[in-house]
Amino acid sequence: MKIIEIEWCSPEYQSALELRHDVLRGPLGLKLTAEELDGEHAQLHFAVMDKDEVVATLVARPESSGVVQFRQMAVRPDQQRSGKGTELLKHCEEKIREKGFSEIHLNARQTCLPFYEKLGYQPIGDEFEEVTLKHQKMVKKLS
Protein backbone atom coordinates (compact mmCIF):
# COMPACT_ATOMS: atom_id res chain seq x y z
CA MET A 1 0.00 0.00 0.00
CA LYS A 2 1.22 3.48 -0.83
CA ILE A 3 -0.47 6.87 -0.68
CA ILE A 4 0.17 9.26 -3.53
CA GLU A 5 -0.94 12.65 -4.77
CA ILE A 6 -2.47 12.09 -8.17
CA GLU A 7 -2.57 14.48 -11.09
CA TRP A 8 -5.81 15.76 -12.53
CA CYS A 9 -6.84 13.82 -15.66
CA SER A 10 -4.19 11.13 -15.11
CA PRO A 11 -5.18 7.45 -15.33
CA GLU A 12 -5.17 7.36 -11.50
CA TYR A 13 -7.51 10.37 -11.44
CA GLN A 14 -9.89 8.55 -13.80
CA SER A 15 -9.78 5.48 -11.54
CA ALA A 16 -10.46 7.70 -8.52
CA LEU A 17 -13.46 9.23 -10.31
CA GLU A 18 -14.84 5.75 -10.97
CA LEU A 19 -14.34 4.80 -7.32
CA ARG A 20 -16.05 7.99 -6.15
CA HIS A 21 -19.00 7.21 -8.41
CA ASP A 22 -19.20 3.55 -7.40
CA VAL A 23 -19.03 4.24 -3.64
CA LEU A 24 -20.66 7.64 -3.20
CA ARG A 25 -23.06 8.39 -6.03
CA GLY A 26 -23.99 5.21 -7.89
CA PRO A 27 -25.72 3.59 -4.88
CA LEU A 28 -27.94 6.70 -4.65
CA GLY A 29 -28.80 6.62 -8.36
CA LEU A 30 -26.77 9.81 -8.88
CA LYS A 31 -23.85 10.73 -11.11
CA LEU A 32 -21.04 13.21 -10.60
CA THR A 33 -22.08 16.22 -12.66
CA ALA A 34 -19.91 18.46 -14.82
CA GLU A 35 -20.71 21.27 -12.36
CA GLU A 36 -19.42 19.19 -9.43
CA LEU A 37 -16.25 18.31 -11.34
CA ASP A 38 -15.65 21.90 -12.50
CA GLY A 39 -12.56 23.28 -10.86
CA GLU A 40 -11.09 19.92 -9.87
CA HIS A 41 -7.97 20.77 -11.86
CA ALA A 42 -7.12 23.29 -9.10
CA GLN A 43 -7.75 20.83 -6.25
CA LEU A 44 -5.47 18.27 -4.64
CA HIS A 45 -6.21 14.61 -5.31
CA PHE A 46 -4.90 11.74 -3.21
CA ALA A 47 -5.17 7.98 -3.57
CA VAL A 48 -4.28 4.83 -1.72
CA MET A 49 -2.72 2.46 -4.22
CA ASP A 50 -2.72 -1.30 -3.74
CA LYS A 51 -0.44 -2.60 -6.46
CA ASP A 52 -1.67 -0.52 -9.43
CA GLU A 53 -5.25 -0.07 -8.22
CA VAL A 54 -6.84 2.95 -6.54
CA VAL A 55 -8.56 1.53 -3.44
CA ALA A 56 -9.27 4.82 -1.63
CA THR A 57 -9.35 8.47 -2.62
CA LEU A 58 -9.88 11.95 -1.21
CA VAL A 59 -10.09 15.42 -2.76
CA ALA A 60 -8.81 18.54 -0.97
CA ARG A 61 -10.24 21.87 -2.14
CA PRO A 62 -8.46 25.02 -0.92
CA GLU A 63 -11.18 27.39 0.32
CA SER A 64 -9.30 30.42 1.61
CA SER A 65 -6.06 31.35 3.27
CA GLY A 66 -5.34 28.53 5.67
CA VAL A 67 -8.61 26.61 5.13
CA VAL A 68 -9.15 23.51 3.01
CA GLN A 69 -12.22 21.35 2.48
CA PHE A 70 -11.84 17.58 2.31
CA ARG A 71 -14.46 16.11 0.00
CA GLN A 72 -15.43 12.99 -1.89
CA MET A 73 -13.56 10.53 0.34
CA ALA A 74 -14.23 7.01 -0.87
CA VAL A 75 -12.83 3.60 0.05
CA ARG A 76 -13.52 0.55 -2.06
CA PRO A 77 -16.12 -1.55 -0.17
CA ASP A 78 -13.86 -4.61 0.16
CA GLN A 79 -11.17 -2.36 1.68
CA GLN A 80 -13.38 -0.56 4.21
CA ARG A 81 -12.55 -1.10 7.89
CA SER A 82 -8.98 -2.07 6.91
CA GLY A 83 -7.36 1.15 8.16
CA LYS A 84 -6.73 2.49 4.67
CA GLY A 85 -9.23 5.35 5.08
CA THR A 86 -7.62 6.38 8.37
CA GLU A 87 -4.15 6.29 6.84
CA LEU A 88 -5.32 8.30 3.83
CA LEU A 89 -6.91 10.96 6.03
CA LYS A 90 -3.83 11.28 8.26
CA HIS A 91 -1.55 11.47 5.21
CA CYS A 92 -3.69 14.19 3.64
CA GLU A 93 -3.77 16.17 6.89
CA GLU A 94 0.04 16.11 6.99
CA LYS A 95 0.39 17.10 3.33
CA ILE A 96 -1.96 20.05 3.60
CA ARG A 97 -0.28 21.14 6.86
CA GLU A 98 3.01 21.19 4.91
CA LYS A 99 1.30 23.39 2.31
CA GLY A 100 0.42 25.93 5.01
CA PHE A 101 -3.20 25.08 5.77
CA SER A 102 -4.31 25.26 9.41
CA GLU A 103 -7.96 24.17 9.26
CA ILE A 104 -9.91 21.42 7.53
CA HIS A 105 -13.63 21.22 7.13
CA LEU A 106 -15.77 18.55 5.53
CA ASN A 107 -19.38 17.48 5.16
CA ALA A 108 -19.70 14.01 6.65
CA ARG A 109 -22.52 11.60 6.03
CA GLN A 110 -24.26 10.85 9.32
CA THR A 111 -23.14 7.23 9.11
CA CYS A 112 -19.49 8.38 9.01
CA LEU A 113 -19.55 10.72 12.03
CA PRO A 114 -17.88 8.23 14.42
CA PHE A 115 -15.01 7.72 11.96
CA TYR A 116 -14.26 11.45 11.74
CA GLU A 117 -14.84 12.12 15.46
CA LYS A 118 -12.33 9.37 16.32
CA LEU A 119 -9.78 11.31 14.24
CA GLY A 120 -10.38 14.64 15.98
CA TYR A 121 -13.02 16.28 13.79
CA GLN A 122 -15.70 18.27 15.62
CA PRO A 123 -19.29 18.72 14.41
CA ILE A 124 -20.46 22.30 13.94
CA GLY A 125 -23.90 23.64 13.13
CA ASP A 126 -27.02 21.64 12.40
CA GLU A 127 -27.28 18.56 10.22
CA PHE A 128 -28.40 19.13 6.66
CA GLU A 129 -29.35 17.14 3.59
CA GLU A 130 -26.97 16.77 0.67
CA VAL A 131 -27.26 14.25 -2.19
CA THR A 132 -30.40 12.85 -0.51
CA LEU A 133 -28.56 11.96 2.75
CA LYS A 134 -28.18 13.60 6.18
CA HIS A 135 -24.78 15.27 6.59
CA GLN A 136 -22.95 17.14 9.33
CA LYS A 137 -20.32 19.83 8.82
CA MET A 138 -17.16 18.98 10.74
CA VAL A 139 -13.96 20.89 11.37
CA LYS A 140 -10.46 20.15 12.58
CA LYS A 141 -7.76 22.65 13.50
CA LEU A 142 -4.26 21.53 12.64
CA SER A 143 -1.53 22.19 15.19
From TrEMBL:
Sequence ranges assigned to domain N-acetyltransferase in this UniProt record: 1-143
InterPro entries referenced in this protein's UniProt entry, alphabetically: Acyl_CoA_acyltransferase (IPR016181), Bact_Acetyltransf (IPR050832), GNAT_dom (IPR000182)
The protein, known as: GCN5-related N-acetyltransferase
KW Transferase (keyword) present: yes
PANTHER family hit by this protein: AMINOALKYLPHOSPHONATE N-ACETYLTRANSFERASE-RELATED-RELATED (PTHR43877)
Keywords (A to Z) from UniProt: Acyltransferase, Transferase
GO molecular function: acyltransferase activity, transferring groups other than amino-acyl groups
Domain of life: Bacteria
